[in-house]
Design brief:
Blueprint (H helix, E strand, L loop, with lengths): L1 H9 L6 H14 L1 H4 L6 E11 L2 E10 L7 E10 L2 E9 L43
Antiparallel strand pairs: 1-2, 2-3, 3-4
Length: 135
């Protein structure tokens, strides 16, 4: 019976959000000197995760503890290494860190403007379709 318990302990199920979150936190804490981020000042939440064989793909949200309106999301790819997850790669995927200032979330693509809708131009830009008039 002790052998069965030892085998179970070596092959514990880590296919859950908390184990993935721990792998991401380990990765971020190891890189804190390079990034300058203090993870103790952030709320980190694994929004969703999909498991496939020895790989996990997670969507993770980061929100500063002192400003719950800001934040961003990142996609992480993790690989199982024994009884823990190790980050293989990442990509920005959601709310911009400027969202607290009213900037819309980054989607990675430009949405088309529906016909008949006015376009926003930079201040001082002449209207589109206008021609300069001679003076």
């Amino acid at each position: 019976m002790a052998v069965a318990a030892a085998v179970f302990a070596c092959s514990r199920n880590i296919n859950n959000k908390e184990a993935v979150r721990q792998g991401i936190m380990d990765y971020l804490n190891k890189r804190s000197a390079q990034t300058g981020l203090d993870m103790k000042l952030m709320n980190v939440d694994v929004t969703s995760v999909q498991f496939r064989n020895n790989e996990a793909r997670a969507l993770v949200s980061f929100v500063p503890k002192d400003s719950p309106r800001g934040g961003m999301s990142m996609n992480y790819t993790l690989e199982r290494s024994g009884n823990h997850w190790v980050v293989k790669g990442r990509a920005e995927s959601g709310m911009s860190p400027h969202a607290a200032q009213g900037t819309p979330p980054s989607t990675g693509s430009i949405a088309p403007i529906p016909p008949g809708q006015p376009q926003a131009l930079p201040p001082g830009h002449p209207p589109v379709g206008s021609t300069p008039q001679s003076r």
